């Protein structure tokens, strides 16, 4: 019994080095394929001797033979060397050498035949139809495009497939820019205004006093739109978005010209024609005297309701020339 037990132990100890050698060979093949792929990425080309040394390790199924080694096989074949000797000298299989020589006989080239692979779900015609749909409906979501594509092409398509197809169409999803909307009447007014002032010189534009007002939210605004938290902190009060229905705000008016900056005025609440005239008297007229020093100038403001009121236009008509604004 003891002898039998010792024999089994000895047999197991003999198999262990064999398993270790197999593991080492597999890891060496994996590392060799990794080194070869990295070399192809950086453009490194091995010499024939290096490939001969590396060919001692059996390449994986489907691994292409380097063009330099293919060229060497064809050269030896044209010199009259047999296929068996070529395979033995280059340490390749006879079937590999036979396939390369047969392809050279048939086509006269040594290039690798392109593999078939899996065909794409959407062909070129489908991609053109998808591109036309995406350009027509630019604001559609990927889910809406996927639903349309499944009904139109009568194929089972996923959202990821449509994502890849959109990229193949040389399109990409972007966040749209924000721009004020202009109707056709406003666009025509802007065009006529630009055409009327096309011949203005730089000196003429330097005589313009530009003005505008803007509204600023004081307390909350748009703070808290994004927060850094864990999944469990969604109900933490510090992770909430602060928002109110009517946040406190301030109205700021200012003016400037090519000569420098004018005064800045801040007030609370809304503005009407009477309050706007007070702002012009207290801030616009002193800024004009400070910037232009008695020289003639042109005042510019937009077409807001307090600006186009009858009392405002009559007050401005007696004191300063106003630049007509298209919108």
TrEMBL record:
Signal peptide: none annotated. It comes from the Eukaryota. Residues 70-119 form the Insertion element IS150 protein InsJ-like helix-turn-helix domain. Pfam families: HTH_28. InterPro entries: Homeodomain-like_sf (IPR009057), InsJ-like_HTH (IPR055247), RNaseH_sf (IPR036397), WH-like_DNA-bd_sf (IPR036388). Coiled coil: none annotated. One of its GO terms (molecular function) is nucleic acid binding. PANTHER family: HTH PSQ-TYPE DOMAIN-CONTAINING PROTEIN, TRANSPOSABLE ELEMENT TC3 TRANSPOSASE-LIKE PROTEIN. This is Insertion element IS150 protein InsJ-like helix-turn-helix domain-containing protein. It comes from Sinocyclocheilus grahami.
């Amino acid at each position: 019994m003891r002898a039998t037990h010792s024999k089994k132990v000895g047999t197991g100890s003999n198999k262990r080095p064999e398993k270790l050698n197999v593991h080492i060979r597999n890891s060496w093949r994996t590392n060799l394929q990794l080194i070869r792929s990295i070399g192809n990425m950086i453009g490194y080309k091995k010499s024939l001797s290096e490939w001969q040394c590396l060919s001692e390790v059996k390449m994986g199924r489907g691994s292409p033979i380097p063009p330099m080694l293919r060229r060497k096989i064809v050269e030896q074949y044209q010199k009259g060397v047999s296929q068996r000797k070529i395979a033995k000298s280059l340490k390749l299989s006879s079937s590999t050498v036979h396939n390369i020589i047969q392809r050279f006989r048939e086509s006269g080239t040594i290039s690798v035949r392109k593999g078939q692979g899996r065909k794409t779900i959407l062909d070129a015609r489908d991609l053109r139809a998808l591109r036309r749909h995406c350009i027509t409906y630019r604001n559609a979501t990927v889910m809406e495009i996927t639903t349309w594509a499944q009904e139109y092409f009568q194929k089972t398509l996923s959202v990821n497939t449509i994502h890849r197809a959109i990229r193949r169409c040389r399109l990409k999803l972007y966040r749209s820019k924000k721009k004020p909307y202009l109707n056709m009447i406003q666009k025509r007014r802007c065009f006529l205004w630009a055409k009327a002032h096309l011949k203005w010189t730089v000196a003429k534009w330097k005589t313009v006093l530009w003005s505008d007002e803007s509204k600023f939210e004081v307390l909350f605004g748009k703070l808290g739109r994004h927060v850094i938290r864990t999944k469990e902190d969604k109900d933490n009060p510090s992770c909430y978005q602060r928002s109110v229905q009517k946040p406190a705000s301030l109205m700021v008016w200012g003016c400037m010209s090519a000569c420098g900056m004018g005064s800045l005025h801040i007030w609370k609440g809304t503005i009407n024609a009477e309050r706007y005239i007070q702002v012009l008297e207290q801030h616009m007229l002193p800024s004009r005297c400070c910037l232009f020093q008695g020289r003639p100038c042109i005042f510019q403001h937009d077409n807001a309701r307090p600006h186009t009121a009858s009392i405002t236009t009559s007050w401005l008509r007696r004191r300063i020339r106003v630049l007509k604004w298209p919108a």
